[in-house]
Amino acid sequence: MSEITHLNPAALHTHPAFSQGVRVDGGSLIVVGGQNGTDATGAVVSDDLGEQTAQALRNVLAVLAEAGADQTGVAKLTVHLKAGGDVTAGYRAAAEVWGPHPTAITVLQVAGFARPEVLVEIEALAVAP
């Protein structure tokens, strides 16, 4: 059985939306490649960052489910956002879709993606029981 331990040392800032680090004991590693806000046909779902973020997270959850896992087993998320936009809608969508499962996270702003209409890409490292 795998176990995720959230690491939030007293010497570092504590935030309710993420952990400073995560230790994974046991289980199988799942690497979720970058997921965009696309539907099952590959079409981008909207030109809105919030809607794309919600869909990208649903896509991450679909990959995790295929491996027998869910967001409780995620050790780290990496979120790439197209630079210049207001990230508030993305954070709001993440809270709605992801729920209260803080994990280690890195958020980067990038110049753009291979598909110009894409506004966000999300990767995950997780462990399956």
UniProtKB/TrEMBL annotation:
This is RidA family protein. PANTHER family: BLR7761 PROTEIN, YJGH FAMILY PROTEIN. The keyword DNA damage does not apply. One of its GO terms (molecular function) is hydrolase activity. Pfam families: Ribonuc_L-PSP (PF01042). The keyword Nucleus does not apply. Keywords: Hydrolase. It comes from Nocardiopsis lambiniae. InterPro entries: RutC-like_sf, YjgF/YER057c/UK114. Its EC number is 3.5.-.-.
